[in-house]
Design a protein that fits this description.
- The chain folds into 3 domains: 109 residues, Periplasmic binding protein-like II (D-Maltodextrin-Binding Protein, domain 2, 3-Layer(aba) Sandwich), CATH 3.40.190.10; 101 residues, Periplasmic binding protein-like II (D-Maltodextrin-Binding Protein, domain 2); 67 residues, Alpha-Beta Plaits, CATH 3.30.70.
- A hairpin with a 5-residue loop joins strand 2 and strand 3.
- The strands form 3 sheets. The chain has a 6-stranded mixed β-sheet with strand order 2-3-1-4-11-5.
- The protein contains 11 helices and 15 strands.
- It is of the alpha/beta class.
- The protein starts with 6 loop residues before the first helix and ends in a 6-residue tail after the last strand.
- It is globular and about 85 Å long.
């Protein structure tokens, strides 16, 4: 009896990496459900076989997904832009963003204490100026910064150190030592209060946790959200995935090569000229099954994301107000206008941004639209 992780079960399946826990996990499950990716994840197992597609879901730490995708261990993955950046250029250059998913939005920021106890005794060698609140990121140069993003923080402060010290040299001031980056695996926001660091670099969503710890931002390294990523190069393993398109299975057989010509022919047959830009060929090229499957999943996910942004608005309107209401609801491309059986009346159907629908309904009612209905979208192709 084979296990889920056996080669027997994974052969012929596209491997799709999903964050196994944390802020992205639940949103990923909603996204997969909307894209009709059907699976059951057994308790304590980090692999699930999709029932309706040749895909295996692999649940990994979000920080590991860029490396697994870039090195070809998995074919597709969802992670944060911050994780891709933290993996460094060596891995970042191996992956490409396919879609920004619109959730998991946050900022990687430098945070420092808002207040400092200036009445506390000074430590050995500590100047009174060092006890004042830090107001700019330049004031952290030469001090200690705690973070779990040591790659990004290290690169940021290395550049900042050089800029600050170059300016100090020009002013005849003493050069400051390099900023010390202290790696902390978790609870980074507590580092300043515990005396571990003078400032931190950490992800911030609402900022409530930081404010509760008495911290405030003084610089932003990057803004991040969840993204779908894939490798920039094709890996030999994924070419073993079975053909996803039935058209590929029914492709006509290729003509025999010249090496299989009749043995009675003593002279080699002349080869036809290679096709050029002005000639055509009847041989049909098809994308690899892996690429076709990735395109399918990408299309489904795009549909789920679009459906989450829009609602379908339908209403009836008399002809004298038609031009006015169409200016209120122009639609993504154009509104669908259909005549009603009652003379002079039309039915309008149009997609409207979900965040604007309340205001749009107010304007439609004021302009004379009637029977205004709004329908939620679960999926679409736009």
């Amino acid at each position: 009896m084979s296990t889920l992780l056996s080669a027997e079960n994974l052969t012929g399946r596209l491997l799709f990496a999903i964050p196994k826990k944390g802020r992205l996990y639940e949103k990923c499950l909603e996204l997969l459900s909307g894209a009709d990716v059907q699976f059951k994840r057994a308790h304590r197992l980090d692999v699930a076989l999709v029932q309706n597609l040749p895909i295996a879901l692999v649940f990994l730490p979000a920080a590991d997904i860029p490396r697994f995708v870039g090195q070809g261990n998995v074919d597709l993955g969802i992670t944060g832009q911050d994780m891709v950046a933290e993996a460094g250029p060596q891995i970042g250059n191996l992956v490409t963003e396919v879609i920004e998913l619109g959730f998991g939005k946050c900022k990687l920021q430098v945070q420092v204490p808002e207040k400092v106890d200036e009445t506390a005794p000074l430590a050995d060698g500590q100047s009174p100026e060092s006890r004042k609140p830090i107001e700019s990121v330049e004031q952290l140069v030469g001090k200690k910064v705690a973070t779990s993003f040591d790659t990004l923080a290290g690169a940021y402060f290395k550049k900042l150190d050089a800029e600050v010290n170059e300016k100090r040299k020009a002013e005849g001031l003493e050069v400051l030592p390099p900023t010390e980056i202290e790696y902390v695996g978790g609870s980074v926001e507590a580092a300043c209060a515990l005396g571990v660091a003078d400032g931190i670099v950490d992800l911030v969503e609402s900022g409530e946790t930081m404010r509760a710890c008495g911290l405030h931002p003084i610089s932003t390294l990057l803004s991040s959200q969840a993204v779908l990523i894939r490798s920039v190069t094709s890996h030999p393993r994924i070419e073993a995935i079975r053909r996803f398109s039935s058209a590929d299975l029914n492709a006509p057989p290729q003509p025999p090569s010249s090496s299989s010509s009749s043995s009675s022919t003593s002279e080699q047959q002349p080869q036809p000229p290679a096709p050029t830009a002005t000639t055509t060929t009847t041989s049909r090229t098809t994308p690899s099954a892996a690429s076709a499957l990735i395109d399918l999943i990408t299309s489904r996910i795009r549909g789920v994301i679009a459906a989450d942004k829009y609602v379908l608005c339908q209403y009836n309107v008399y002809k004298t107000a038609l031009e006015t209401v169409l200016k209120i609801t122009p639609g993504r491309r154009a509104a669908t206008v259909s005549p009603l059986r009652e003379d002079g009346w039309s039915a309008v159907s149009v997609m409207v941004l979900k965040g604007q629908i309340a205001e749009v309904m107010d304007k439609l009612e004021a302009a004379g639209a009637e029977d205004v209905l709004v329908t939620a979208l679960h999926n679409c192709r736009v």
